[in-house]
Specification:
The chain has about 300 residues and is of the alpha/beta class. Helix content is about 35%, strand content about 30%. The protein starts with a strand and ends in an 11-residue tail after the last helix. The chain binds adenosine-5'-triphosphate (ATP) and magnesium ion (MG). Belongs to the ABC transporter superfamily.
């Protein structure tokens, strides 16, 4: 339903997206994850037909997003990464304008306003960031579109509202909607994504089925060191470190059962404060791709 094929947008200086491909099937919720500047917004903007691909193609329902951008606008509910709303209008006027454009009905709009506890009767200029975000959510969902392209939809929302949003996408997914979701929030991925791709430096570096990770047999060992020196030394070993916190001297190592002897041998030479085993979770997978070059987690 949503497809990008060899999509490239080169901004120069290694910025942009390069030869990326993935597809989101009908009724699927697909996570699109990656660190800041990885290329998520760039890709989503090409899917919305706002920007022309350098190479490759983005299609929705087999229709070229760049050539048929007007159809895409009518079919897709989109929440932009950065919400820019016309400041001269009040929230109510904006909703009225969007309602006419999208042929939305009042009951759906009231339902969404109630859900997010938004009073639209205020000037947009004076709205808080969270209220503007809520307005963008109402506007994306008001016409009950079958396809949703959501670019960090909850940034700026408080935790209660973030949870409400998760409930909303879960129920939309149950109703058969096709969703492409870019987010840095693990709970959103865990709650609804069937598959996901990780993008880094403009390239897709991993694509996976979330259930495969949830049911996998690899283990994660949590280790806390007593001394900085031991922590630093361990960081230099070539174990698969999926998370680390230098201040707390904590690491999480993902290993296959076959490697357990090697791990025990290594840590037996250090002073250990805490050691425990757990399943390699979706969250470990998620965190692994946020590590910076030194192996520290940036979350
Ligand atoms: N119009 C533009 N002109 C030049 N460079 C751009 C432009 N838009 C984006 N970039 C660059 O392309 C890269 C990808 O940016 P993009 O906004 O797609 O990242 P992102 O994955 O959405 O990040 P974030 O998580 O911060 O939203 C960045 O290096 C960015 O500086
Ligand atoms: Mg972005």
């Amino acid at each position: 339903m949503i497809e990008v094929k060899n999509l490239t947008k080169d901004f120069g200086f290694n910025r942009g997206v390069f030869d990326i491909s993935f597809e989101v099937k009908k009724g699927e919720a697909y996570g699109f994850l990656g660190p800041n500047g990885a290329g998520k917004t760039t890709t989503m903007r090409m899917l919305m037909g706002f920007s022309q691909p350098g190479k490759g193609i983005a299609t929705i329902n087999n229709s070229d997003c760049w050539k048929n951008y007007y159809d895409i606008l009518g079919e897709v509910g989109y929440i932009p990464g950065e919400v820019a709303l016309p400041e001269g209008l009040s929230g109510l006027e904006f909703i009225e304008m969007m309602k006419k454009m999208k042929h939305a009905d009042d009951s759906r709009i009231s339902y969404l306003l109630d859900m997010f506890e938004l009073n639209p009767d205020q000037s947009m200029k004076k709205m808080s960031i969270g209220d503007k975000r809520k307005l963008a959510i109402v506007s994306a969902f008001m016409s009950d579109p079958n396809i949703l392209i959501l670019d960090e939809p909850t940034s700026g929302l408080d935790p209660i509202m973030q949870n409400k949003f998760i409930e909303l996408i879960k129920s939309e997914k149950k109703r058969g909607k096709t969703i492409l979701l870019s987010t840095h929030i693990f709970e959103e991925v865990d709650a609804c994504c069937d598959r996901l791709s990780i993008i880094k430096d403009g390239k897709i570096i991993s694509t996976t089925d979330t259930d495969t990770i949830r049911n996998n047999e690899n283990k994660v060992y949590k280790i806390e060191f007593l001394q900085d020196e031991d922590f630093n030394q361990f960081m230099k070993s070539n174990m698969n470190i999926v998370y680390s916190n230098k201040t707390k001297r904590k690491v999480r190592v993902a290993i296959n059962d076959k490697e357990i002897n090697r791990l025990i041998k290594i840590i037996s030479t250090y002073q250990i404060k805490y050691f425990s085993e757990s399943q390699f979770t979706l969250e470990d997978y998620f965190l692994k791709y946020y590590k910076d070059r030194k192996g520290e987690s940036s979350l």
